[in-house]
């Protein structure tokens, strides 16, 4: 009789929707909405941590990341709180990317279970003819399932990272849900950091704190709260002393560590830049956060101006700090597919395609460019005589 | 016991974990986090002495194979446990919560909970309530409305109000609290030791994870250094060790504090962060400096550790040296530059 006992899934506490356990250190992770960013961070953002995004100059790609973060929270029915000083938040939220099951809100009709079975059966009966080793792999649900009968998914587990479409703005009905709250800090407040922290503390400690016992009433399960703070420490933020920004971050870390919450903060770091060296003010903030990434767009950077010609990418993506909770090495060293096995490989670039935002390894294009390698043979004989003379030397070099 | 290759690299007399009366200052940077060194000190301090023999047994062979730095380890350090007094570790966590240290120490083969029950490990929480804005929190560990669990810290630092509270007075209160922990260890040990053998009183090992948090929250640099000096004297009079971690990126040097209005100091001009770092260095016996490699990121070398003599170092044996390191899941390996196991 061995003491070995198989862990049954039902014995373990149920995970909140839209989360997963890290296979590296068993931490609860949530998705940032960008699957490649999740990968760079080692599977996702650990619950209880702060992600600091240093914004790009002249462009607004960090807003895209915030939008993804908020939309992912709405997609997995987390509580989402957006805070900003600068502008009215509602118009900003109208531009959130849409995701597939949002259609389910429109047609509330739940199909019969028989219907679902009938719909699933052709897919399951379809046998793979070649490459049997891939047969047992899960098929990517985002591409195969049609947009129509989506409500079946609302009963099943929520996907960890949704597939978003930047071209399609989100359904306005989603924004009226009670789990989306915003706080526009008005300029009359003496210290924005203090005001914001008391708001956040009130939100988080009301049902999302791990210090309070699990709410037993009504079978309410644990949920996640996501905090998105837009453009912190911009000139519009009032503070009673320069230290209140650091006090805010330190207190926020202490708050989040004991709660089911994650936070994404964007900071216009370039405002504090003086000379080529990194700003010390920003570095102090970086030390107080758990993960730090930086976006440097080619359009707004001086050093890489020439890179603007590259059609493939829109800028560099730097990872300055990996989330390092409860372990000695960040989990991305083992799990990340993009950065490989390096601690933080700073050879990443981002690009915003029409429909999605991706981060990938930066490669220089092949020498000579990829656009037009050969001169098209012209039909007109008289013109070709002059153009062939001009094009002769490069053609001889080109293999 | 901690990281074996670091232990043998220190090469302290009689194979001890710490030489008696020693202050370590760990200076790190964002690209080369130095907090992994703290876990070495926490775990190795708890595992020394007569009680350490059993716990080192359970360390697997993975821990033992890292001895290639000193190909000929002396007889004392090759023994299964390092000799030395029983340490009491007081950890002031200003950057992480207790769970973090607990889980990392478990990976390193030490269960902090058992040591906590023996009062040999004390955790002071400096994260939950320290910052001035955290007044608005209602649920803070250690408070009456929060159920006490096994991971509740022994003491939670009260809120520091920048501007209307003297940092000197705040740190005096903290010092009193730390001294009371030191005295508790002396007294409670005598009752515990009555079981089998008369043991010597516990030797303190006081650790501050990230003292720069205090500076960031606006505490006066002079007051912090005075506080640490008092800690150093208290600890070293009991033959113990003080370990301080501080961030020392080069770009931080020009950072200024807004002046503390309540200090009685007449020349209350704002001193930079480099002043703070340099005055900390004056306290140090040994400075451990972690830096990223100048040649950039590497898969097999995560950074460079410089072991430097501090101004308070009077030992003739200690030699400054530079090592490279690689951090694993449950260990860290230190080797001479160019002697990475991926190269050899």
What is the structure about, briefly put?
Chain A is of the alpha/beta class. Helix content of chain A is 29%, strand content 17%.
Q: Could you characterize what this model shows?
A:
The complex is a heterodimer of chains A (399) and B (344). Chain A is of the alpha/beta class and 399 residues long. Chain B has a single domain, classed as P-loop containing nucleotide triphosphate hydrolases (Rossmann fold), CATH 3.40.50. About 11% of the residues of chain B have low confidence. The longest helix of chain B is centred in the middle third of the chain and has 26 residues. Chain B starts with a helix and ends in a 9-residue tail after the last strand. With 344 residues, chain B is α/β, with parallel strands linked by helices. Chain B has a ten-stranded mixed β-sheet with strand order 4-3-2-5-6-1-7-8-9-10, sandwiched between helices. At the A-B interface, α9, α10 and α11 of A face α6 and α9 of B.
Provide the descriptors you would attach to this structure in a database record.
A: 399 residues; alpha/beta; Rossmann fold; B: 344 residues; ten-stranded mixed beta sheet; 10 strands; P-loop_NTPase (chain B); Elongator subunit elp6 (chain B)
Major sheet characteristics of chain A: 9 strands, mixed
Structural class of chain A: alpha/beta
Largest interface: A-B, 53 and 57 residues
Tell me which CATH architecture of the domain at 26-101 and 161-361 in chain A applies here: 3-Layer(aba) Sandwich
**Rg of chain A:** 25 Å
Unreliable spans of chain B are 50-80, 193-198
In DSSP terms, counting alpha (H) and pi (I) runs of 4 or more, how many helices of chain A? 13
Share in β-strands of chain A: 15-25%
Q: Which class do the helix and strand fractions of chain B yield?
A: alpha/beta
Main beta sheet strand tally, sense and closure of chain B? 10 strands, mixed
The portion of residues forming beta strands of chain B comes to: 15-25%
- Quickly count the helices of chain B: 11
Outline type of chain A:
globular
Report the CATH architecture of chain B.
3-Layer(aba) Sandwich
**Strand-and-helix sequence of chain A, N→C?**
EEHEEHEHEHHHHEHEHEHEHEEHEEH
Mean pLDDT across residues of chain B:
82
Instruction: Say what oligomer this is.
Output: heterodimer
CATH topology value of chain B: Rossmann fold
Task: Assign a percent range to the helix content of chain A.
Answer: 25-40%
- Spell out the CATH superfamily of the domain at 26-101 and 161-361 in chain A: P-loop containing nucleotide triphosphate hydrolases
Strand order in space, largest sheet of chain A: 8-5-9-10-4-11-12-13-14
